[in-house]
Structures are given as C-alpha cells and as structure tokens.
Amino acid sequence: MRSSILVALIGLGSCFLGVCIGRGSRAELRAERDAALAAAARPDGEVRPVCMATIDPDVLRSELARALHANGAPPTAATEPEPTATAAKAPPPPPSPQQEAALEKVQGDVDRTLARGTLNVAEAEDLRNAIHQVQADAQFELTRRLIVAMNQGQLKIEPHAFPF
Amino acid sequence: MTKSKVMGLLMGGAIVLFTAAASAGWKGNAWPNASCNSAGCWGSGSFGTTRATSNNSDEMLCYQSPTYAACTVYAGGVTASCGTTDPNMIAVIRSLNSDAYIYFASDTTGKCTTISTYNDSGYVPKTP
Asked: Cβ contacts (< 8 Å) between A55 and chain B: which residues?
C-alpha cells in the first residue's frame, strides 16, 4: 500500500514538472519572439522593416508585369491601371476659407508648441481639437512634425499629454 | 495524525497542484517599451499590461482616422511614436483589440516603417 502511494506521488510529481517545463519553454519562445521584434530596431543605427504589409499592390503588379514581359509573356489586362485605383488617387478638394483659417491657426499652435518644447495635458487637448479642424493631409503633416519632435526629445510631453 | 492521513494529505495536495498546473494556460506580460536612436524609434507593449503598470504614467495608444493613423508608447519617460497614411498599416491599427500587443518602428521623419500586432491569450486583459 505504502509503495503504491509513493509511486502515485512520483508519477504526479513528474507530470507536474513536465507541465512546468512546458510553460517555461513557451515563455522562452515568447521572449525570443519579442526580442526578435525589438531587434528590428537595434541601437546599431538601422531600423529594419519586418512587415510586408506596406507593399503597394500597384507597384507589385507592375513589377510582375515587367518581369513577365522580360521573359516574353504577352501583356495582360492586369497590367492596366484599375479605374478605381486612379480615382482613389485623385487630389483632395481645395480647402475652404474656414479650413484655411483653421490651418493657419493650428500651424501657429504647433510652431509655438515646438518652440516651447513642452506639452501638458490641457495644451495637448487644445492641440488635438485644433488639428482635427483641418484637412486630413494637413492633420497628418502637423502630427508628423510633432512626432518627430517627440521622438528626438525636442518636445517633452507630460504623461497622458498626447497630441493625437 | 496517522501515517495514512499524512499520505492522504500529500496525495491530495499533489493532485490539486497537478490539476491547477494542467488547467492554466500560458500567461505573460508585455511591458511597454519605447526607445529611439539616430535611425528612428520603436515602441511595443500590450494595452492590458501597460495599463497594469504601477507608475500611473506609462501609456500606449493608437489613433486612427480614415486617412491616417498614429501610435505612441510612453514608457519610463521616453516617448516613441509614428504616423502613417499607408492604407495597409491603417488597416492593421484598425484591427487592434483592447488587449492587443503592438510593435511599431519609425524612421527619422516620424513615419511608420513597421507595424505588427498580436492577439494573444497569454497577455493580461485590462483590469480597472
């Protein structure tokens, strides 16, 4: 009776250890995965893209067509630009006078923020609201200027004071 | 206490331990990270783990509009951010759920060069 109980305990202990080891290996895999992601932008000066989602389908299509053509394949309809793609790249409508005035104001706000070099929560909220009043392409350009300054440490933001 | 009772308690304890270990999935943390160098910045972390930090300042967020998106991680006083007008990257950001893990990198112009995300059962959900 005593020996069978001991065997049972040893068996259960082995199973428990096996589960623990499995969990450890899984955690190590996650750590390796995160490290691989972090290594994409190591401080050795090179930021390496690890995502293929940025390939422009039009560029890919034209490159494929060029490669096929170089190998003697006849051009296909797929090499023609799609009307929807052309329409999507149409320039945006010109800004309204209100949008122009809003843009002028928010550009001044951003200039003053960058000159000041700091951003608190209230200022960030005002800046967000002002940026959202202008056209989309201008919104992105203004946000990008702030991002560059934040990334380079020229614009110190307080906690929770994000300008977007 | 008799020997048989001691053995019974030991067996019971072992079974409880085994059951608990076998029924629990992997759980991990993805603390927020932000770093910059001369080539750009990168940020990573999961929303749930970032919210669970104890310093009341670390934060990560992603903003999206129909035409552009931006992500930022504030960790330990360092900010890493990037913005993009790339529809594919905007789609990735739009797909984020509230407990997702995100990794992004930017170039020196503030534009995103990489955005990837994980929906992982192991990362802790946001708690109050």
From this structure: 88
What are the residues whose beta carbons fall under 8 Å from the beta carbon of B59, sequence distance 6 or more? A159, A160, A162, B32, B50, B73, B74
ipTM of the complex: 0.80
Report the 10 Å Cβ neighbour count for A127: 23
Q: Is residue B101 a contact partner of residue B45, using CB atoms and an 8 Å limit?
A: yes
Burial of B9 from C-beta contacts in 10 A (0-12 / 13-18 / 19+): exposed
Is B23 part of a structural domain of the chain?
Answer: no
Task: Look at residues B57, B63, B58 and name the one whose alpha carbon lies nearest to residue B44.
Answer: B58
Total number of domains in chain B: 1
Asked whether residue B93 is assigned to any structural domain, the reply reads: yes
Distance CA A23, CA B22 (A): 10
- Segments forming the whole domain that contains residue B96: 33-118
pTM of the predicted structure, to 2 decimals: 0.64
**B110 inside domain:** yes
Interface membership of B57 toward A (CB under 8 Å)? yes
Mutation site for B-interface testing, chosen from A47, A56, A152 by largest number of B Cβ within 10 Å: A47
B21 part of a folded domain:
no
In this predicted model, what pLDDT tens digit does every residue of B11-31 receive, in sequence order?
655 555 555 555 689 988 899
Structure tokens at A122: 């209230």
d(CA B15, CA A130): 62
Give tens-digit pLDDT for A27-44: 445 545 655 555 544 444
